[in-house]
Amino acid sequence: MDKIKIMTIFGTRPEAIKMAPLVKELESRKEIESIVCVTAQHREMLDQVLELFAITPKFDLNIMKNKQTLTGITSRVLEGLEEIFDNEKPDMILVHGDTTTTFGGALAAFYKQIKVGHVEAGLRTFDKYFPFPEEMNRKLTGSLADIHFSPTQGSKNNLLREAVAEKDIYITGNTVIDAMHVTVDEKYIFENEELNKIDYKNKKVIMVTAHRRENWGEGIENICTALNKIVDENKDVELVYLVHLNPVVKDVVYKHLSDKERVHLLTPLDTKETHNLMNKCFMVMTDSGGLQEEAPHLGKPVLVLRNVTERPEAVEAGTVKLCGTDVDVIVKEANELIRNEEAYKIMSKAINPYGDGLASKRICDAILGYFGRNNEEIEEFKVKYSK
């Protein structure tokens, strides 16, 4: 019997982190021929993950250009994948989440009538401009997908409300938790020497990322003003800000924080460094989507520097709190966690609403079932309250 040809397509570091354990699981299945195609929508940060997980793509579109636009990315993905699909003829492609590569890959497959599997399906904010362009990328991909791998019951419910057939949806948990079982090490020593010099036991180390497009301008200005106040008002706080390389973000952050005592401004770290910094830190402040999933797994409170989130489960569980970009709100919520031990304890309880490390296995089992190679019922992910 011929193998099922599954092509995994991704282009950014966040996608790569979450797709890497799935690629490894696909490679382990004797019924599957696994093919990896990267668009390299982000080049350097993508390559770091490929090296970490020992993944060698068969195809690399290498589309990244200086000052690239969403239109340019989409068109280069469509054009690049057309020839690959014609030659390889995969039975199904897998795309992840909400990037422009994700939408472009799903659309290119649809044009060739190739089945589409959507990993991390069903996340919604219900505002097409927040986050932009991710909300419409994932919604349009959902319309194109044949099988949907939702991380949570909430994301499945979103798809059901959009009239997706229940038989086509599987609750798998999030593959990022699979990845963290590989990357996090309690005895980890950083490659970045500046991080090794920080006193994680006696200082309250806050890990910060903030770079989303909708926060450019006033949002980043407000976040930096708030961070300044937090450091000034709490002598036991040390800040590690992983600063995005985009000058729109970087210039503002350095203007406000470059000469600040107890503030470390670092370029984005590779995946292993990032996950282990998160594991050692006191709390996380971010406008990222992925960190909202990763930090609760490690029992770290998260203050989200956005007004809406497509990941409400951790908010409901109490390990994540929305702060927006209002200076006073950010300072108030941060100070509450820094100064109130009970408030910190409540948020830091390790409720993990996003996965148990078995998402990749469930996805592969579901794919085999879709193609009639597995008749066993898939045991879906259910939230377990631990620690």
TrEMBL record:
UniProt keywords, alphabetically: Isomerase
Family: Belongs to the UDP-N-acetylglucosamine 2-epimerase family.
Sample GO molecular function, one term: UDP-N-acetylglucosamine 2-epimerase activity
Stored SUPFAM superfamilies: UDP-Glycosyltransferase/glycogen phosphorylase
Cited Pfam families: Epimerase_2
InterPro entries, A to Z: UDP_GlcNAc_Epimerase_2_dom (IPR003331), WecB-like (IPR029767)
Keyword set includes Phosphoprotein: no
Domain UDP-N-acetylglucosamine 2-epimerase: 24-367
UniProt superkingdom: Bacteria
EC identifiers of the protein: 5.1.3.14
Organism: Clostridium frigidicarnis
UniProt keyword annotation of Isomerase present: yes
NCBIfam families: wecB
Protein name as catalogued: UDP-N-acetylglucosamine 2-epimerase (non-hydrolyzing)
